[in-house]
Amino acid sequence: MLNTALFRQDIPMLYKFHFFIKDLHIQLEQLHHLYKSLLESRIFTVYRGLGMSMKIFDETIRQQVHNLLAFDTFLSTTLNKDIALQFARNKSNNDDESILFQIEIDTDKLQRPFADISHLNAFKCQDEILFSIGTVFRIDHVAKEKTNDGIWFVYLSSIDENDRQLKHQIKKIQLTLLNFFKRVWQAQIKHGDQYQIAISYINMANIYYQQDQYQESLDFYQKAFENLLELPSSDPLTIATYQSNIAVVYIALEQQDDALQFYEQALKVRIKYCEPNDPLLIDTLHTIGHIYREKKEFNKALKQYDKALQMQPISFESPLKHNPSSIAATHVNIACVYYQQNNINKALDHFLKAFDYQREYLSEYHPILAFLYNNIGTMYYRLNKFDLALKNQLLTLQIEEHSLPKDHKTLSVTYTNIATSYEQLKKYDQAIDYAQKAVNQLKFHRSKNKSDIQTKQAYLDRLLMDKNLFQDK
Q1: Bridge pairing between strands 114-116 and 68-70
Q2: What's the rounded Cα separation, in Å, for the pair 270 and 273?
Q3: CA distance 116 to 77
Q4: If DSSP codes are grouped into helix, strand and coil, which group holds residue 155?
Q5: Residues 6 or more apart from 178 whose CB is under 8 A from it?
Q6: Whole-angstrom Cα distance, residue 43 to residue 184?
Q7: N or C terminus: fewer CB in 10 A for the chain?
Q8: pTM value?
């Protein structure tokens, strides 16, 4: 019902759903903050199958190649191509076309909230990744013809929030919204409704933040906060949200100490009023830990992550109480701190714990597992356990080859990692084979960075020389 209302822009129905839409977006945002630490700098593919009339397909997809496509609904996707194909074939209207969207997700580019919600799904096998309303992709390519079994393939990719085309379109909308919010605010001042005035301040602060006008954003967030405090009865958790908003702007202004002050105030409130395993509470602890990591105050960062771990009880009574991705994210954060402290054994221990929490719930080719295998391999390499490093690097490659396009640049990095492990094991033929694959991959990718190719070619040349020296001994 909700997606139908969004698609048809059914305003009366959307108004009935507006609290649900807001809550779902906020929950997705909280899960995203926890989830993204498990996908740092990862690229993976998701799929969406659906039915669509030929007229709409022509107008909005086939005639718009290289343009942007915004989804005005919550976008449910899957990591499993076969499941998406089933949805494409099981269209409700036989006259519709069967469409399969293949979407490349670059976690460094995509800023809109998304998360793996498989642990909340009754159908565990669906590997569902949910994106919030308004997620924008670029239409890279549309198949010239449908397949023999009647499927149209559409290829989408993530776009950077700084993309010129996107920024130009968004800026016009933001200016319109800003002028609208200012008029609403002026009308509310006349009526003296302090609560609604605070909401208008928040709306204007959000727009200024999105326009990178951080000082203006901070001014309006602070006005909203002051307004809220003057109200006779203010919800403590709402106050904590306003404090977090101010902290976010201080981060953007690179004023970490001020950000810490407001986050810690919000944390006190959330510890008192939230359930122990509330994603909002865990995310606040993680965020404070991240700030201390940025400040190189590693022991203080560990203290925050340890608190988060203590608040994440292992409970199988309800999927909401037992979020394996959340627990895994905490272990990853702890591992990263130990790695920065050069305590490789402890870093490895926590990466392995993160893996243990995830492998039971994730499919064989899930990108989070690739992230964990890669990091576990790096730890073993640092500990000179090259056979174990190689084992995990090969598992990383297995997932990447399954989920990435054949010409993807990321494969070159993994090939090089594998080559270095083979080199340390004195298996020069295998090392040379993977080093050559790394060079070929960049050429296949048509990398514009010539230094990348030169560096990998130089490594390959050195391996060839070392092999000859090794054989001469």
Answers
A1: unpaired
A2: 5
A3: 10
A4: strand
A5: 204, 207, 208
A6: 42
A7: C
A8: 0.82
Residue by residue, DSSP assigns 300-367 as HHHHHHHHHHHTS----S-TTT--HHHHHHHHHHHHHHHHHTT-HHHHHHHHHHHHHHHHTTS-TT-H
**Nearest residue to 205 (alpha-carbon basis) of 159, 249, 244:** 249
Task: Evaluate whether 136 touches 159 at the Cβ level (below 8 Å).
Answer: yes
Burial-class residue 148 by CB neighbours within 10 Å (0-12, 13-18, 19+): exposed
pLDDT tens-digit series, residues 333-382: 999 999 999 999 999 999 999 999 888 778 888 888 999 999 999 999 99
Cα(422)–Cα(458) distance, integer angstroms: 17
Give the residue from 329, 361, 321 showing the smallest Cα distance to 79.
361
- Residue 97 pairs in a beta bridge with 52
Nearest to 291 by CA among 304, 310, 281, 275: 304
CA distance 114 to 127: 13
Q: Which two tokens stand for residue 367?
A: 């990108």
pLDDT at position 6, please? 44
State how far the Cα of 330 lies from the Cα of 338, in Å rounded to an integer: 13
Among the listed residues 104, 102, 106, the one whose alpha carbon sits nearest the alpha carbon of residue 143: 102
Amino acid at 85: L
Torsion, Cα of 59, 63, 69, 75 (10° steps): 60
Alpha carbon distance 129, 79 (integer Å): 7
What sign does the CA torsion over 333, 335, 338, 342 have? negative
Q: What are phi and psi of 40, to 5 degrees?
A: -60, 125
Residue 80: closest CA among 440, 421, 386, 403: 403
Q: What is the pLDDT of residue 383?
A: 98
Neighbours of 41 (CB within 10 A): 11
Residues 84-109: b if buried by 16+ CB within 10 A, e if exposed: bbebbeebeeeebbbbbbbbbbebee
**Residues with Cβ within 8 Å of residue 226, at least 6 apart in sequence:** none
Output the CA torsion sign for 169, 171, 175, 178: positive
| Pairing relationship of beta strands 68-70 and 136-142 according to DSSP bridges | antiparallel
Longest dimension (CA), the chain: 90
Q: Please, are residues 244 and 286 in contact by the beta-carbon 8 Å criterion?
A: no
Residues of the chain below pLDDT 50: 5-9, 315-320
SS3 content of the chain, % helix, strand, coil (to 5): 65, 10, 25
Classify residue 271 by burial, with Cβ atoms within 10 Å: 0-12, 13-18, 19+.
middle
Q: What is the pLDDT of residue 124?
A: 53
pLDDT at 121: 61
CA distance 393 to 390: 5
